[in-house]
Structure formats: C-alpha cells, structure tokens
Specification:
The complex is a heterodimer.
Chain A: H1 3-7, H2 11-19, H3 25-39, E1 46-49, H4 51-66, E2 78-82, H5 109-116, E3 120-125, H6 159-166, E4 172-177, H7 183-189, E5 192-195, E6 215-220, H8 223-233, E7 263-269, H9 280-295, E8 299-304, H10 306-333, H11 340-347, H12 354-372, E9 380-384, H13 398-401, H14 410-413, E10 418-425, E11 431-437, H15 443-456
Parallel strand pairs in A: 2-3, 2-4, 7-8, 7-9
Antiparallel strand pairs in A: 1-3, 4-6, 5-6, 5-10, 9-11, 10-11
Chain B: H1 7-16, H2 23-42
The chains are: A alpha/beta, B mainly alpha.
C-alpha cells in the first residue's frame, strides 16, 4: 500500500488494518505527518502540528495493542481538532490574535473522551476566527484553502477540519456548529460531518460562539467513521449545563438496515427560492440525490419551507447577541486584536436591544413547534447542505452570503441532529453536500439514511487533485 | 424600515457601550446593524400573547 493510499483509508478501514497488523499506529501517524508536511503549505489547514505528542501517543498505542490492552476501534487512530477545543498544555488559538498564545490547563470533555479512546492527536486545525465571520484573511494564521481548488473557500467555520480530511491528513476531526459550521465545510470539501442533537455532545472546553446554539460534533471521510467518532464523544457531562442526560446508543446498530419506507420531507416551497435563491446547479445535484433516496425505497414529500426560512432570522439575532456578550470586554479593550471580518459581525450585537433578543427567543419557541410538527408526516428532512458551491476567495462577498437561504441554521435553532454527506460535484469539480435531519436524539436515523445514500453512490470515493 | 437606527444613534450607542470605534468603522457597521435589527423586527409577526422565550429558567437544574 502506498503512503497516499494509507492516508486515504477511512477511519474504519484504518482501524481494521491496525487489528490485522497490516500497519501500526506509528506508521499511520508517520504517513499523515509526512503528508501534512509536504502538502499543507498550500492549504494551511493546521495551525499547530503536535508531532512529538503524536509519535509518543502512537508508541503508547502500539505497546497497549501488542499487550492486548486495546481500547476499541479508535485506538491508534490519528485525528485532529478544530482550534477551539481546549487542549491541556497545547496552544488553543481560535485562529485569533486574541488567544494567539493561550495554553489551556484542562482538556475539553470531547478531547478527554478521544484521549481515553486512544486516538492520536496530530494537531490543531484552522477555522474562521472565533468560529464567526468569514475566512480570516487578516488573522495571525493564513486562511484555510479548499483542497479541491485552492482558489476557493473550504467553507466554515470548521474549515481546517474539512480541508484536512479531504486532503488525507487525518482519519477524523472535531468541528463545531452554531449555524452550519460542521455541515458547510463538510459539503464544500466533499467529506461527512454530523451536528448531533443539542446536548448530545458536551460543549465543555469548546470556546463559545453562542451558548444556546453551539454544537460540538465529528467530521470524517465516511458516515460509518462519523458514527464511530460520535459514539466516542457523546454522552452526559455535568460540566455542560445544556448536556442531555439521555443514554447513548451504539450508533452502529441499524446503520446498514436501509431506508425502505422512510418518508423524506423536502421543505422547498418558500425557502429554496428565498432572496437570491439556491444555485441552479446545486439544486439539480440535490434533485438527483432525492432520486437515489427514492430508488432506495424512500418516499419524497414536499413540505412548507416558510418556518425553515424564518428560522434564520431568529438564529442570527440570538447568535450575534450572545457572541457579542461573550467577547464584549475584548471588543472594548483590545478591538485591534480581532480580524476585520469577525470584529464587524461581533459588533453588530452591541446594537441589538434586549427586546430583539427576547423576541428571537420567543420566535425560537414558535418555530421549533412549527418545524417539528412536520414529523407527523415525515421521518427526516432533506435539503442541500449549502445553497451554492464554495466561492472563489477573489469573488467572495460576505454581504451576499447573508442574502442566500441558509439550509443549516434552522437546525441549530431547533437543535435537531443533521448530517452532510457528499452528493455530487459541479461542472467545475467542486463538491456538493446533501443534508439529512431527524427528530431530537435520532442520530441513528440520520446516520442510517446518510449511510444508505453514501453506499448507493460513489461520490465519497473521489479525491481532490493535490 | 422598522427598528432601523441612524448613524448618530449608532455612534451614541457605541459610546454608551464603551466601544471606541472610528467614524469609518461606524459607517461600515451601519448596514449590517440595520439588517440585523430589521430581521429581528420581522420576527415580531410571529408573536402571540402566550409565547414564552425558549430560554426558560428551571429550579430543577443546578
């Protein structure tokens, strides 16, 4: 097996190879770090590479596995973390000059769980500064580039997570999602990412953007890999006030049961054509994906898109207000440390009134009821993950982004589990993602639907021309 | 538009909030601020008398 082939194994395949002793955790780690060293100069997906930590963890994993002390499928698997997960003794920057030299004294709970599962930490990944705004062109670290075409954005805010996976630098990654920050880069980079139900994965140690909308979750190159990672990091945590005390099932159970009889709701009317609307090429790819779901035995049902469309307004109001509250002191005292894009977005929160925020919270109650009412007719919702393919850096207009429909942020507002899985490419060879959403804590349904689609298609097997 | 603010009001709120922003930066902020305030105001159409905020306090959580 070539080094390139080794790096592009799925996490599941890499875990099986370790068990068969086809290769060792040390060999996997070395292959990933060499690939990062040779290619990441043009992608900038990593902010900090923890090679010493990684090699030490790889040797420990090898010793444990050889002595029969294996901890499960993630033991010996190289992964990477969005640089807003606190890592004890390892710099955690949020891609910002504000935290450029911050070294946490504790791990985030999800990081603790991944360490306990025996994963190997390759490093910390680039992102949109403080998970907000757009690509951070004036931050102390360069903006992450899309492996499919480095002139294009990788999507954000978990941009490094998406790019590193697409480039074959790691087998799994963690992202975070407040309005689409796991699903958008997953879509734009041609990988898989799941935003679990709000409360399913602890946010302790994840630097907040908006407390009531933030979700932590995994990204990987296959649905099965996401199921493995999610199983490792999910569960109640008393350190997170929003953590849900609901048992975690094995997300592998039922994964391969198929979707015959599944009712798929498509909230197209009054949403896909909002303002500047969905890119026609994206909608064509999405319609082809619906045909695949239909061929697998699902029924497609059109539902009213209006509450989904309105959800964006409540989501944005809450997000901006809470984000400003979190960053207020630094914005007052050291505003120059923020990049221009994130500073402008954060400052908007200073000019919203208390009534605006409470109104958004009341709208959340109403929209949650209206959106969930559809589950009497359908089992899941399906949309494109993003309204258009990744834009070129050169032509990117952050203001126009706010005029397009957002297919992701209604599910931050409602806290529903949502996944993005590759579903095609544009004529320009840029990836398009399919989003599947289910009832609260029905991650198994989301994963089963995405897995059925993934296995019926070949999109997830394509690799960027690096 | 309902809920929009003027440049003078923006400058005044910035000062009250302890934000030291240049005139240029305030000018750049104004369209985004008014977009945010307008879309927030549009949510008022959803309001009914018995609609409570989603962020409810509970004595059962410590």
């Amino acid at each position: 097996m070539t080094s390139n082939e080794l790096c592009y194994l799925t996490l599941t395949e890499a875990a099986a190879g370790i068990r068969r002793k086809d290769f060792s955790p040390f060999e996997l780690t070395k292959a990933c770090l060499e690939r990062i060293d040779s290619i990441d100069g043009k992608l900038h997906s990593f902010i900090t590479i923890t090679a010493d930590v990684a090699f030490q963890q790889a040797q420990e994993a090898e010793r444990a596995l050889l002595s029969g002390m294996g901890r499960g499928p993630l033991h010996g698997i190289p992964i990477a973390l969005k640089d807003l997960y606190a890592t004890k003794g390892i710099r955690t920057t949020c891609h910002s000059a504000v935290l450029e030299h911050w070294i946490p004294v504790d791990d985030a709970t999800a990081v603790t769980k991944l360490r306990a599962a025996g994963t190997i930490l390759l490093g910390k990944l680039g992102m949109h500064e403080f998970a907000f705004g757009g690509p951070s062109v004036d931050a102390p670290f360069p903006a992450v580039r899309n492996p499919w075409n480095t002139a294009h954005i990788p999507g954000g805010s978990s941009s490094g997570s998406g790019a590193a996976l697409a480039a074959g630098f790691c087998y799994g990654a963690l992202g975070s999602d407040t309005g689409g920050s796991i699903r958008t880069p997953s879509s734009h980079c041609g990988v898989v990412g799941i935003k679990p139900t709000y409360g399913r994965v602890s946010r302790y140690g994840v630097i907040p953007l908006s407390w009531s909308l933030d979700h932590a979750g995994p990204m990987a190159r296959s649905v099965e890999d996401c199921a493995l990672l999610l199983h490792a990091i999910a569960g109640y945590d008393s350190k997170d006030p929003a953590s849900a005390n609901i048992p975690v099932t094995d997300f592998h159970i039922g994964l391969k049961d198929g979707i015959k009889g599944l009712r798929v709701g498509v909230p197209r009317t009054h949403w896909f054509d909002e303002n500047k609307g969905t890119d026609p090429e994206t909608e064509t790819v999405f319609d082809e994906a619906l045909k695949v779901l239909g061929n697998l035995g699902a029924t497609i049902v059109e539902i009213d898109g209006r509450p989904f469309s309105t959800a964006r307004k409540a989501n944005q109001t809450m997000l901006v207000a809470e984000a400003y509250a979190f960053h207020e002191k630094h914005l007052q005292n050291t505003p120059e440390k923020f990049g221009s894009s994130v500073r402008r977005r954060l400052l908007e929160g200073a000019f919203l009134s208390a009534a605006d925020y409470i109104t958004a919270q009341r709208a959340r109650t109403a929209l949650n009821e209206q959106i969930r009412a559809n589950f009497s007719r359908v089992d899941v919702f399906a949309t494109p993950s993003a309204p258009r393919p990744p834009e070129a850096f050169e032509s990117m207009d952050p203001n126009e982004q706010n005029l397009r429909p957002s297919f992701t942020n209604p599910f931050n507002l409602t806290g529903l589990p949502a996944i993005s899985v590759p579903c095609g490419f544009t004529e320009g060879n840029l990836p398009v993602g399919l989003q599947i959403v289910a009832r609260p804590f029905e991650e198994p349904v989301v994963l089963r639907t995405a897995y059925a689609y993934e296995q019926a298609t070949e999109w997830h097997k394509r690799r960027p021309p690096l | 538009m309902a809920n929009e603010i003027s440049f003078a009001e923006l400058r005044s709120i910035a000062e009250l909030s302890g934000l030291k922003l240049s005139e240029d930066e305030l000018q750049r902020l104004l369209p985004g601020v008014n977009r945010s305030r307008t879309q927030g105001a549009e949510l008022r159409d959803l309001m009914t008398d018995n609609l409570e905020p989603a962020s409810a306090f509970s004595t059962q959580k410590v």
